[in-house]
Amino acid sequence: MTLTLRYAAHSDRGLIRDGNQDSVYAGPRLLAVADGMGGMAAGDVASNIVIGAMAPLDEDVPGDALVDALRSAVGTANQQLRDTVDANPQLEGMGTTLTATLFSGSKLGMVHIGDSRAYLLRKGEFAQITKDDTYVQMLVDEGRISAEEASSHPQRSLLTRALDGRDIDPEYSVRQVLPGDRYLICSDGLSGVVSAETIGETLREYTDPQQCVERLVQLALRGGGPDNITVIIADATDQDIVEATPIVGGAAARDRGMATSADVSTPAARASALSAPRPAAPEEPAPADDEQERPKRRPVRATAMALALLVILGGGLFAGWTYTQRQYYVGATEEGQVAVFRGIQGQVAGMDLSTVHRTSGTRLDDLTVAAQDTVKVGIRAKSEPDAERQLAELTSDTPSNPNLKPLCPPDPTAVVGGTPTPAPTPTPTPIATTPAPNGSPSAKASVTPSGVVSASPTTVATAAVGATGPTTTPDATPSDSTTPGLDPAGCRSPE
């Protein structure tokens, strides 16, 4: 039995962000959400490139090789991201999540990377069918925090995997589709604000896909709308329905595909063109100038064009530099201190695109191995306050902070203050110089720097009868209180 999809989609800027970095595509066969990152311009470009590369999958009815088709499109998208960064170094660090499904009429192929999500409502049962590629999900998998704690963890948006032009293999899967199945694909602007329980109830209550989408977006806005909100609802039905026009939203709709290499014949371009404003009619050309006036105007026109080009280039450089100075991230200095940086990672013509904004008192070696790896890559922030908040959460010296190594216990033999300081010494007992009653050698008691009385080999001249020379006392048994050294790599210094 061949099924069809009845779908609706919408992408909203939210209430806090200045723009929309999400891109969405919903068609008869392809459903895709990409949540861009790396700053406003870079996030737009990344999500748009990926959606533009995925959109051709909606052209033809796919066969059984759903995963192969998805993998090929993702490879194209990743290569385009890499080429774009190579041509525009200021975009270094951009990336995007991707959660997409490819429908064949009875099966659904899926690709997923990042923290956008896919859910399934089947026969009243609502479940998440993707797994977040995030730092907190890793903590949940390791049993260090619970799923409930992860939902409110301050670093819940920190990604461990995304499409950014580097070699990486997302998760692929294939599912059987049943009549009545309802699929939800969304960015974390919805799932990070509205609880899974409320989302499930909404999917059960609103049977019309468009009304359901609008309600979910409204719920996310009521929750504060801190991020871009992108939602797709698709119902699998065995009824005959008219194939709807593909929906393109978010950054992909604004940009009209200009940031991608896809041509204008793609579904994304055609769908965008339907909602694009009609261009104004061209003005009638002005009458031709006399032949004698043309030579006089050409130098003026050439000069004006040259000046305009210089203004455009200068404005582009200024805009690019201004953009970098609005970006912040948490990283490590060359001296190994965890710090907030202003700018973006990378160099142009040997010049760093970032500077140290504020240095913390925490060293990189004080963090756990997982946290060190994250800091070395760089933790992107939405703003300066967000970077300061992430730095404080990363380095806060509290027992509940999973990012810091435990404190090393004090070394009982360590010298306080870094310079040898004599410990308080009990008044020593004078060594007897008179012969022992039985003529045996005597031992001298001494006080160790730790205050433990122990015996040491001592040469003592005795006046015992028959003694011929000095004798040496044996070493005492070492104290059992000696503590073996602790591996410094597994803990941090309390200083």
From TrEMBL:
<keyword id="KW-0472">Membrane</keyword>
<dbReference type="InterPro" id="IPR015655">
    <property type="entry name" value="PP2C"/>
</dbReference>
<dbReference type="InterPro" id="IPR036457">
    <property type="entry name" value="PPM-type-like_dom_sf"/>
</dbReference>
<dbReference type="GO" id="GO:0004722">
    <property type="term" value="F:protein serine/threonine phosphatase activity"/>
</dbReference>
<feature type="domain" description="PPM-type phosphatase">
    <location>
        <begin position="6"/>
        <end position="236"/>
    </location>
</feature>
<keyword id="KW-1133">Transmembrane helix</keyword>
<dbReference type="GO" id="GO:0046872">
    <property type="term" value="F:metal ion binding"/>
</dbReference>
<keyword id="KW-0479">Metal-binding</keyword>
<protein>
    <recommendedName>
        <fullName>Serine/threonine protein phosphatase PstP</fullName>
        <ecNumber>3.1.3.16</ecNumber>
    </recommendedName>
</protein>
<feature type="compositionally biased region" description="Polar residues">
    <location>
        <begin position="393"/>
        <end position="403"/>
    </location>
</feature>
<feature type="region of interest" description="Disordered">
    <location>
        <begin position="383"/>
        <end position="495"/>
    </location>
</feature>
<keyword id="KW-0904">Protein phosphatase</keyword>
<feature type="compositionally biased region" description="Low complexity">
    <location>
        <begin position="267"/>
        <end position="278"/>
    </location>
</feature>
<dbReference type="Pfam" id="PF13672">
    <property type="entry name" value="PP2C_2"/>
</dbReference>
<dbReference type="InterPro" id="IPR001932">
    <property type="entry name" value="PPM-type_phosphatase-like_dom"/>
</dbReference>
<feature type="transmembrane region" description="Helical">
    <location>
        <begin position="302"/>
        <end position="323"/>
    </location>
</feature>
<keyword id="KW-0464">Manganese</keyword>
<feature type="region of interest" description="Disordered">
    <location>
        <begin position="258"/>
        <end position="298"/>
    </location>
</feature>
<keyword id="KW-0812">Transmembrane</keyword>
<keyword id="KW-0378">Hydrolase</keyword>
<feature type="compositionally biased region" description="Low complexity">
    <location>
        <begin position="445"/>
        <end position="485"/>
    </location>
</feature>
